[in-house]
Design a protein that fits this description.
The protein is an alpha/beta fold and about 425 residues long. It has helices at about 5-20, 20-25, 40, 70-95, 145-150, 155, 160-165, 170-175, 225-245, 265-280, 295-305, 305-310, 330-340, 375-380, 380-395, 405-415, and strands at about 45, 50-55, 100-105, 115-120, 130-135, 190-195, 200-205, 255-260, 285-290, 315-320, 340-345, 355, 365. It holds the Pfam family Arb2.
Amino acid sequence: MKMNISKFHVISFLDLLSRIDLDELMKKDEPPLDFPDTLEGFEYAFNEKGQLRHIKTGEPFVFNYREDLHRWNQKRYEALGEIITKYVYELLEKDCNLKKISIPVDATESEPKSFIFMSEDALTNPQKLMVLIHGSGVVRAGQWARRLIINEDLDSGTQIPFIKRAMDSSQICKEHKNITFDWLQTSMEGYGVIVLNPNENYIEVEKPKIPVQSSSDSSDEPAEKRERKDKVSKETKKRRDFYEKYRNPQREKEMMQLYIRENGSPEEHAVYVWDHFIAQSAAEKVFFVAHSYGGLAFVELMIQREADVKSKVTAVALTDSVHNVWHQEAGKTIREWMRENCCNWVSSSEPLDTSVESMLPDCPRVSAGTDRHELTSWKSFPSIFKFFTEASEAKSSSPKPALTRRSHRIKHEEL
């Protein structure tokens, strides 16, 4: 049955709202959404263990700061999250010595832009390059999970341990004394590093207000009719204002999204960074660490740039990846390559690196040693670097095939 919502029904609804005591409906007035823009303003700081603690009490972050005000508490949490994002960006530049690179590379001054982070030698390191891709949601470059950063620590929630380990193995040994040296064998030059930012797909700007059109000239109308129209207009405006107060009590700004050219989705972003940076790098061996939706973005990259990825990428570590080779229509040659060169550390209560069965014919799945999705990258940290070391050594020791006519023909057939 098709519903017919008439103008009368809309006016009746607005009239009903106008009769409601809005403050009583909301039980209590919501405090202003006016939050600090610094950690110090929130009275929080990270201690020497990388844990977020209240400056005065030393207590962890409290979500339910005000009882029975879930929306306000959520907005407060989101405001803190934005500060955390900027804080991690600062760590990437100051603590990890990464450079912030604006994209698109040919962007005009006025168009929306995003950015990635790279080590000084990311494009010039002749040996190895590591590429980090986080999952979907509110996380940005350098993060695995905002929840972990706020509620646990920087090590588990950010990509910083991976970056430091890749760039300077000696530093990570000092910071993580429980890690043994047997798997910590890399070449002296280490890895170049590129940190993707796949969720930074648009900028938000305030939506322009639609000007109210003035009524047509009614000077020739009788005064009584004009007064009646004015009265109806005022009543309608009153009802609309009341509805707007109910819908948007804090009078928050209405925002619109302006998408970033060629980076409007995580998949687009991965392909763009590949074309303009990774493919141009001097590294003989490229390694990916991709968490959750980042794994799907990598598979999409491989579908679009199969031959290039196969020739340049040595190994891929996925952590609880949500990719699906059937839904993404990855071909047989891609699935075969993934079986040989990828490993997915999945959430599981089994011990770390225990084999886990899979119904999909893509890459091996092993336990990350945790059943918490957001922790899979951190818990599989030592195993991932061991996996990369073994893959690197295997590639170095395997003889390069002679370029025969047949192999040359096959290569071009793949293209």
